[in-house]
Amino acid sequence: MNVVTPNKAGVRLTKRLLIPLVVFVLLVIFLALGFRLKDAHLLPSALINKPFPEFALADLLRADLTRSRQAFIGRVSLVNVWATWCPNCLIEHPELLRISREEQVPLYGINYNDDADKAVAWLQRHQDPYVFSIVDDAGSLAIDLGVYGAPETFVVDAAGVIRFRHVGPVTPLVWRQQIRPVIELLRRRAESDASNKKNDA
Fold this sequence. Notes:
Blueprint lengths: L5 H29 L22 E2 L7 E2 L9 E6 L4 H16 L4 E6 L3 H11 L6 E4 L3 H6 L6 E5 L5 E6 L4 H29 L1
Parallel strand pairs: 3-4, 4-5
Antiparallel strand pairs: 1-2, 3-6, 6-7
């Protein structure tokens, strides 16, 4: 007959406590390594400096109208991925409204993996900052863009090429320090290119 001494019982108890503790520590280390980017919001994108993906998707407010990437060509613009189930989308919404009113940059929306009726009601309740929003309920365009979730915002140049990507809410600080400088640079380049073409002619 085996007799469990107090010391043996203590060892078993210690082992039982140590296993969850070790698992927890490993999980913390794993998560810490996963967020070692200089800025967790600046995730890399394979589409930077590449044309915005082709698409043919319905307009959220006009279901009979199909939109395409041609709408993004001609001016530097912002494309914002949003959804009604996204709490950070509500957080960034006042800044998007301000940008649409004050910054003279077209702002387009991609309503991602959402219910169209709820999305329309959401815009009616919180106001609509977008030139238009497209319905990406199947997430096909989001997949092509490499979207991780919502919100995400892309800066697209006048030729329809993606130049910058921000993951997370657009705050006033993000606008001033990250997005606006990119837009201003792209506008200066476009003006310079137009001037050079004029001189060549």
